[in-house]
Amino acid sequence: MDKDMACERFSPPSILRSVLGDESDILDLLIIAVHETFLKSGLVGFDSVSGTRVNGLQFPEEWPSSATPLSVSYTLPEVLDKEDVSESIVLNIRRVINGCVVVSGSLIESRSKLYLTLDQNRFAPVLDLLRRNCLDEDKMREVYNLWKTVKDQLVLPLSIQLSEKTGATLPPCFMRLSSYLKRKILELLPATDVARMACVSSEMQILCSNGDLWKQRYAEEFGYASETQSCGNWKNRLVGIGRLRTIIRRRRQDQSRTCRISSTREAVSLANSGLLFWH
């Protein structure tokens, strides 16, 4: 499978598009997106009464009454394998009158809670466009912002708390950093190392496929990056120019005179002209 296709498959928009069913009410899309972020981060749905794994969401009959929160539990797969699951993460999701969704999360036996307020009017219409495959590049960023916010402010800190409480394996040190810090580290790496980092995990594939990151790499490499070019093409341009460089080097080594491409600048010009295509 092509690496770009693999990155797209594991990106937040693709993941969420696959679970935002046509039958879902637009007001429920934000809740489904939060739930899926937890699941794709290595947690599993958990029924604290039966002690078994559960899939999907069950909305209360009174939903979306502001007085009736949606309660969802999660745990780690290695904790679920134990006979007695004494600790888990509990999320309480409540809609409030001003069009926001308030999500509170904690370990089941903890009094300390984390809170996250999401603007339903901001995110729900974007998710509706996503499930109908009508989302443009600018709005796509909102999907990434939603995923990043839920991951950094709820999923990661609660997962670390659960791992420490149960003795489960903690996430690797690098993976425990926030998405913001990971992005800053990626900005310091050469383009080849960024591409290698994309193979580490699905989360790193998401971070390493960011268009602004590859635009920065392009500008550092060639000293300019036109604002009129779609940000989604920067990685492809770098890959294409890298392949042209390889062709030039090999032809020079073979002392071939059939193609006189004399410089990287000319390779960039060819790539920008649209005369060369790559996948």
Characterize the structure shown:
The structure is a single chain. This protein is α+β, with helices and mostly antiparallel strands and 279 residues long. The chain has two domains: 169 residues, Protein Transport Mog1p, Chain A; 58 residues, no CATH class. Helix content is 48%, strand content 12%. The chain contains twelve helices and six strands. The protein has a six-stranded antiparallel β-sheet. β1 and β2 form a beta hairpin. α10 crosses α11 and α11 crosses α12. The longest helix is centred in the middle third of the chain and has 30 residues. The radius of gyration is 23 Å and the shape is globular.
- Total beta-strand segments: 6
Detail the poorly predicted runs: 1-7, 275-279
CATH architecture of the largest domain: 3-Layer(aba) Sandwich
How much of the sequence lies in strands comes to 5-15%
Whole-angstrom Rg: 23 Å
Helix count equals: 12
Q: What is the name of the CATH topology of the largest domain? A: Protein Transport Mog1p, Chain A
- SSE pattern, N- to C-terminal: HHHEEEHEEEHHHHHHHH
For the sheet with most strands, the description reads:
6 strands, antiparallel
Structural class: alpha+beta
**Biggest β-sheet: strands ordered side by side in the sheet:** 2-1-3-4-5-6
Shape: globular
User: Which percent bin holds the helix content?
Assistant: 40-55%
Question: End-to-end span in angstroms?
Answer: 11 Å
CATH class of the largest domain: Alpha Beta
